[in-house]
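Incident log, structure service

09:12 report received: a user says their structure output differs between two submissions of the same chain.
09:20 pulled the input from the user's history:
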Amino acid sequence: MRETEFDASAIETLVEDIGESSAREVLLVFFKDAAEKVALLSAIESADEIDAITRHTHSIKSAAAAFGFTRISSLARKIENEAAGQSMAAIKADIAALRAAVENAHALSLF
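09:34 re-ran on a clean worker, output below:
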């Protein structure tokens, strides 16, 4: 994973704090939850659902930042902050980029 996409120190701290096995479990929950939220975002068909868009992206943003997934957090922040002024096509493109970042991080993670 490119260094700009991931801050390994966050995971190192997590492992130090709760152990490798527990860290693995927490990260698996994060990836499952992020994938579910991205799926919900992908199903949104109208920019009128801005509350759902911002709620799901806020959750992803915060959790990703806590685990050091800077690319995921950055993309989620962008969607959260800019969705209200974008077309649905632009929102969908950003959600596709977020989905790819989540899938990439999960595939390349150590857990």
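09:41 both user submissions now match this output. Likely a transient worker issue. Closing.
09:42 reviewer note: The domain at 3-108 is CATH 1.20.120 (Four Helix Bundle (Hemerythrin (Met), subunit A)). The chain has one domain: 3-108.
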